[in-house]
Amino acid sequence: MRARLGTIMISISACAPSIGACTTGGVISDEAQTSAAIQDGDKACGFALSGDSWRNGDLPQRAGHFTITFQASAYENGGGPIDAVIGLANGHADGFSDLGPIVRFNAAGQFDARSGSGYTATTALLYRASAYGDDPITYVIRMDVDIPSHRYSVWVTPPGGSEVQIARDFAFRSEQSAMARIDTIAAFVDSPTGYVFFCGTTVSPPFCITSNQGSGWVGTPFPTQRGHLYLVTDLTASANTLDAVVGLSAGTPRAFTDLGPIVRLNPAGYFDARDGDTYRYAMYAPVHAGYQHSVFFDVDVPTHQYSAHVTEPDGSWPEVAYGYAFRTEQRAVDSLSQLGQVIDGTPGTIATCDLMLEWP
What we know:
Layout: E1 2-5, E2 8-11, E3 23-24, E4 27-28, H1 30-33, E5 38-40, E6 43-49, E7 55-62, E8 65-75, E9 84-89, E10 99-105, E11 110-115, E12 118-126, E13 139-146, E14 151-157, E15 164-171, E16 182-189, E17 195-204, E18 208-212, E19 218-225, E20 228-237, E21 244-249, E22 259-266, E23 270-275, E24 278-280, E25 292-300, E26 305-310, E27 319-325, E28 336-343, E29 349-358
């Protein structure tokens, strides 16, 4: 689970995919009730409770064809059916119409999915909800999603059973027929009692941008941000001694001066970051060739300040930048919308994968 202490992001253990690990005496614990989106690497987890608001979990952003798999369990006081949805959105959802692909635990005790303007199922599949305090009945749900065509298919694997296709080439919900991007998994319970739990979320294949010596600037766009933002990407370098940068810009980056927050792979073999007109580091973090470093940016656009962390193989999260100023040329920028990267003259490659915009 990722948690933030001020500007520090650390890794702590999260509730296990068994909801029993997050309950006390058959009642959901305060920790569970307040966890709108539990993050564990690329696993987004959450609880949606009857009478409560929407629950959202951040995902690596996608704009093409991908597969998402997650575990889901339903609970109802008497162990009967509930009415709950789990779906995918562009940005955090606060209404049904924000979702494109949707799987539903319906009130008749069956799984179905949204196809355009209504719910239906390719194959009828019953589900069982657990009574409060009982062990979870966990279903594995796999969704094959094609954003450009706005179509998707869904398979559900019951406990100890075989995968059943409940949706084949369904249309996204009608209100999202032009959806261009997905970065959120969201859930809501529409029945008077009960709750639904999702966890163990994986998205594949990874989406990566690669830079080589001489390949020039490349950027990965994300929704324009004008306030406080958290952004994470996974970075892998082919050598310890590359001279490369990864940073955030207001548009397509074409030069170093286009970046505000910047994390650099220093050719001496460690990470540093830009603070106004110079590079330095707050904490030492060596670059490890072939290791997937997660790079976190904690950015406040209005004040033009940021902090940054990188993960290390030993499990530590050195803070390479703390309260640093944007690069001097970007001290008046009022928005950020791309992750940019370049290798500056040294042979080798860097790859950034699965950019994820986290919500404060």
